[in-house]
Design a protein that fits this description.
The protein is mainly alpha-helical. It is 56% helix and 12% strand.
């Protein structure tokens, strides 16, 4: 299978790009010695040197504008701090906040400079895969969507997407080098 179709926007990306995104996620797991689920995107962001800011810490007018435009999060480079600041809507569910933080980490890592459907698709796949990587769904013997949702502490929508990806992965049973690396990390978690 050389291409996959996005589950929401109908965007088609080459499998090679999905692999690149997933390999980037695994490199974060390795870099930060992540060996248990559920992962904590807040800790990852801080470990990467990013600053986290809640919408509730912003002036009320700015907060209202972001929420009225349904912007769950964004990132900006702060020259004074010499790092990225990730802003996120803390009125959203914890699951949504975790997804948003991982989504914004992707935009930073992939050096996305402007918004596009493709950049959003990439960041969505990165966030979903980071929160519930396919090999870990296998390792933790998730039997259905509810199992993925519960074990990885993610939203139902995200769990549905990840379980669907897992089912395709399981059908083809092709484990890539980076996936084996992830499995080895979790198998050695002692």
């Amino acid at each position: 299978m050389s291409e996959e179709k996005d589950f929401v926007n109908g965007i088609i990306m080459p499998r090679k790009l999905y692999n690149q995104i997933e390999e980037l996620v695994v490199s974060l797991y390795v870099k930060h010695n992540i060996k248990k689920i559920p992962i904590n995107p807040f800790q990852i962001a801080v470990a990467e040197g990013y600053v986290l800011r809640k919408y509730s810490e912003l002036p009320e007018e700015a907060c209202e504008i972001l929420r009225s435009k349904n912007i769950d999060g964004l990132n900006l480079f702060d020259k004074e701090l010499n790092t990225y600041v990730i802003f996120y809507d803390d009125s959203q569910s914890k699951h949504r906040q975790k997804f948003t933080i991982m989504h914004e980490i992707c935009h930073i890592k992939m050096k996305h400079k402007e918004a596009s459907d493709l950049a959003e698709h990439i960041a969505n796949h990165f966030a979903a895969y980071a929160l519930a990587p396919t090999p870990l769904i296998y390792l933790y013997q998730c039997e259905d969507v509810l199992d993925v949702e519960r074990k990885f502490q993610i939203s139902r929508k995200c769990a549905e997407y990840r379980f669907q990806s897992y089912q395709m992965w399981e059908e083809y049973q092709i484990c890539k080098v980076y996936e084996n690396k992830l499995l080895n990390i979790f198998n050695d978690r002692g």
